[in-house]
Amino acid sequence: MPEAFLMQLALAGYGLGAACVAIGPRHGRPVWPIVAAALAAALALHTLALATRWSALGHGPFTTLHEILSSNLWSLALVVVLAAWAVRDVRPALSIALLPLAVLAIWLIASDAGPGHMPPTYDTPLLYLHTLVGKIYLGLLLVAVALGALPWLVATRWGERLGVHAIPASRSDELAHRFAAFAFVFDTLMLIVGAVWAQDAWGRYWAWDPLESWAFASWLALAAALHARTTFRPGPAVFGVMLAGVFVLAFLTFFGVPFVSVAPHKGAV
């Protein structure tokens, strides 16, 4: 199937980009142009793979674990690359941001690529808006987490091996806060659009099913981290730990709850 071949090429491109991040600095080579080219090629191939599957099945990558992993790997990589392209000081954080992408890539390879069922309730423009803001939220949060982890990485041997250029901790903390704040905006929009969609489809804005509850918990956790940073002024490393906790919670919400819960999200019915 062309989709499978394109996906294999895309994964190879992601792997090449990650290898350049890990190996390039040790040899004194300029990393960013090579990484940017590899990831751009991978994203282009991944886009073709998603489009090929969409055309073959007649619906977007919204239903199965394989599709959700693939589309989120694509969107997270896109947000990370755009952030690193737009803000030079984000580039040292690539070595951290690529780790969750590697987890998704390995998981994607192991997942079942068979077609899924498209529920009638998914036939609405709200699906695309809800999905779009959700993916932007998770991507911005990943960038914030990677920046928040820089003070920890710089102080370790891994930081030396990866050639992480130490930007001032105050700068990485400021950028982490900004990306986290933008992530909070899109997280809020995701919940609002989801509630409107639920009212349109099932006649209720909120039902406290497992996915809704975990999504709200993730929103509260991010709000608490941002509030603590503004009110208590923790050090950059402490704020980084808080953001990492929020990301773990969000990751479990996106990729765990919908597939292990005994009371599935009603949108998937």
How would you describe this protein?
The protein is mainly α. It has one domain. It has ten helices and no strands. The chain has helices at residues 2-23, 32-57, 65-86, 94-110, 125-154, 157-162, 169-202, 210-232, 236-255, 257-260. Helix 3 (65-86) packs antiparallel against helix 4. The longest helix has 34 residues, at 169-202.
Cα-based radius of gyration, to the nearest Å: 19 Å
Mean pLDDT: 89
Supply the helix-strand structural class. Answer: mainly alpha
Poorly predicted parts: none
Q: Strand-residue fraction?
A: under 5%
What's the end-to-end separation, in Å? Answer: 29 Å
Question: What does the largest sheet look like?
Answer: none
Write down how many β-strands occur, each being a DSSP E stretch of 2 or more residues: 0
N to C succession of SSEs: HHHHHHHHHH
Share of helix, binned = over 70%
Q: Estimate nothing, just give the exact number of structural domains.
A: 1
Tertiary shape: flat
Number of helices, where a helix is a run of at least 4 consecutive DSSP H or I residues: 10
